[in-house]
Amino acid sequence: MTFTQLLAILRARWIVALSVLGLTVGLTLAISLLLPKQYKATASVLIDFKPDPISALAYGGLPSPAMMATQVDIIGSDRVAQRVVRNLKLNENPQVRQQWLDETKGQGSIEAWMGALFQRNMDVEPSRESSVISLSYRSPDPRFAAALANAYVQAYIETALELRVEPARQYASFFDTRAKEARETLEKAQARYSSFQKENGIFASDERLDIETARLTELSSQVTALQAIAAESTSRLQQAQGAQGDRLQEVLGNAIVGQLKADLNRAEARLQELGTRLGEAHPQMVEARASVAEIRARLEAETRKVTSGVGVTNTINRQREQEIQRALEAQRQKVLRMKAVRDEGLVLIRDIENAQRAFDAIQQRFVQTSLESQTTQSNVNLLTEALPPLEPSSPRVMLNTILAFVGGVLLAIGAALGLELRDRRVRNIDDAADALGLPVIGSLPKPGSRIRLGGASLMQKRLQAPLAPAPKVS
């Protein structure tokens, strides 16, 4: 269908189209004027998503859409709506309670019933590029609309604070219990270590172990030195017991032995001198030989006495070596026992340290959650307070009239086209050509109408149009 045909249909059906348009606009206008006026009061809040002023320095960026959507859901929740009812004490109003009893027969709670009524007239609009949320409430009374909007804001702020504080209180209670358990574990670990110290007589285990280790080192050095002395004394004892006993240092350094050797040398020299002058049987020779033998016997006796002292010294050195060796072994066992005790004590000390660290961590979390549970500052702040509006927000008579006019035009065109489809008629030359399927070669003007140049030109164009070829006759 062309635009010319549409205009022809509208000219033919103008009464119907105009009636539909007038009816639509009139009905919309009447409804708009009859509807009660609604006033819309708006309040806004600013949501601070930063954890706290200290950590806020490291916080950047805008809140995510999920955070804003969560806050919108909280505002529209039953919890906030019921808090509005309780804050305004509407549940204590006798008239409201009677209305609730009449409609619900006492089923459910009055807070839930009124909260559902408030939610129908409440709108929440979050900002797209900021953390501001607008709360609007519609009511026939502008002051009631403003009061409900402000009440919703206050209820939302209190609910947001509760949602922040209640988990902190639960965590604080949980960490309090865990802190008591950690304290008991720490005290038990300290008690075990104290008992262990008393049982083993430990007061400063590391210092005592160092002292005992130093003593063990000293005994080891003494054993080494005594072993060297004992080896030397054993060698000298073997020399003393052999043929070279008179060459010992003790024998050579002995004054009596030296004196006896000097006397022996003089006696042998005198015996040799007498032997050159006197015979073997001479009394002086006999006396001289007896004197030499006596001195030699005394020298041998003194030498044996001196060499026997070497044996005693060797025995003493061996005994001292064995004693120090036994002391060294006892000290070694003592140090080993102390190391074992220290290792066991280190295990107990590590248990104490682990229990202390766990207790400190839990105590820190407990203090943090306790402070959070006692906070009175919410992260939601009132930005704009709702005021009673001066103009109603609905119905909008002008806007509704314009929309009704646009809709009426569309309905009028639709009605005209519907009637035309039910009763199709030829309105112009194009309709005739479409209906007959033949070209139009001319048209007559209406009676009494003037022939316009445009019409002559149109007929001339029609006459100049090529005719369909005639069928051939066979």
Keywords:
Helix Hairpins, 474 residues, 4-stranded antiparallel beta sheet, mainly alpha, disordered C terminus, single chain, 4 strands
Could you please describe the fold and organization of this structure?
There is one protein chain. With 474 residues, the protein is mainly alpha-helical. It has a domain at 205-373: Helix Hairpins. The protein has 14 helices and 4 strands. The protein has helices spanning 3-12, 14-34, 65-75, 78-88, 94-104, 110-120, 142-200, 205-241, 249-253, 255-277, 283-373, 397-422, 429-436, 453-463; strands at 39-47, 122-126, 132-139, 380-384. It has a 4-stranded antiparallel sheet with strand order 2-3-1-4. α7 (142-200) runs antiparallel to α11 (283-373), α8 runs antiparallel to α11 and α10 packs antiparallel against α11. The longest helix is centred in the last third of the chain and has 91 residues, at 283-373. It is rod-shaped.
What is the number of helices?
14
CATH topology heading of the domain at 205-373:
Helix Hairpins
Strand order of the largest sheet: 2-3-1-4
Total beta strands: 4
Question: What is the ordering of alpha helices and beta strands?
Answer: HHEHHHHEEHHHHHEHHH
The amount of beta strand, in percent, is 5-15%
If you average the pLDDT, what whole number results?
76
Structural class, please? mainly alpha
Which helices and strands, and how do they pair?
Blueprint (H helix, E strand, L loop, with lengths): L2 H10 L1 H21 L4 E9 L17 H11 L2 H11 L5 H11 L5 H11 L1 E5 L5 E8 L2 H59 L4 H37 L7 H5 L1 H23 L5 H91 L6 E5 L12 H26 L6 H8 L16 H11 L11
Antiparallel strand pairs: 1-3, 1-4, 2-3
Helix pairs in contact: 2-12, 4-6, 4-7, 7-11, 8-11, 10-11
